[in-house]
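Revision sheet: structure tokens.
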Amino acid sequence: MHLSTDSVKNILGQYRACSASYSASGLTLYDHLPMGVSALAAMGASAERVDAWAKAYAEKHALGAADTTERELRRQWSTRFANDGRENVLRSHLGRLMNGVGAAAFHPAIRTAYALERDDDEDLIAALASWDHEYLEILPDRDAKIVSLDDALAHIENSTITVQHRGLISTRMQLVREHPDFSKIAKHIPSANDFAELNVASAAAFAHSGSFTALHVMTGTHAVGILAPYIDDFDAAMKSFWCAFAAAILVAGTTRRLSTALLDSIRREPTPDWGAMLAAATSADDEHIIKATYTAWRLDARYKDSIFRVAAYRYMRPNSAFAPEYSI
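Predicted:
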């Protein structure tokens, strides 16, 4: 039985004052606790399991209180919600925020989408504040044109841009954007009508490579799909999202186009059914396995494509060659 929205809010209420980030090995990493709790609850974990997972996660990462800047940003967003209401605020600000959707490897957008799904304004405010705080602008060229998705992906596949293997994903995305050759990619944008296929492309990249960065591309693409109904000019948002998508895919080092042979070979791979996979995911401690499984499950429910289930199973299966690398 799924936890009620109120039960999830009660669990998260213990961590409302926490910062959206924490320090580990000299890096500033994004707090996954709100997304992990939300995903576990949606996949059928018990209240006891969700509460225990959250406590263990908070202790492991020594989550601390939000600093003065974060608290002020949250206060500003809270005032907007109080004055204008959630929907008006989202419609007024999401278009601008989408210009910086690559912030913290898409995590603020993901947290925003999860909070919106579960009707949690308090966490939505914290998520939007973190998006403002981490904002990473990767914009298209002014003379960008709309092309087919295959043409757009071909420009990524043919790119010779490479970046160092380790470090923050968002830092490496910015290095990609600053590369002179990225202009060719930023000039060729797929249509907003191709957004559904971008979900398939992200899952194929993740399934093929097992890249930790490709996982964030898939989860970020899913999040933007949740936010899309609140973005009045999605054609404009698509241009910014494509540039962030492309930069992250180049960081991941997986740039194949959506060939029928590639997709069919992935789709044919046997996997357990979703019931077994959700049960395994709700028992997992790794927040990325939880998030990957939840995302793939929701995408499969929407698009009815086995590629999402295969992508999740490759990542979670025992002795997987696609174990998470310590980078974000």
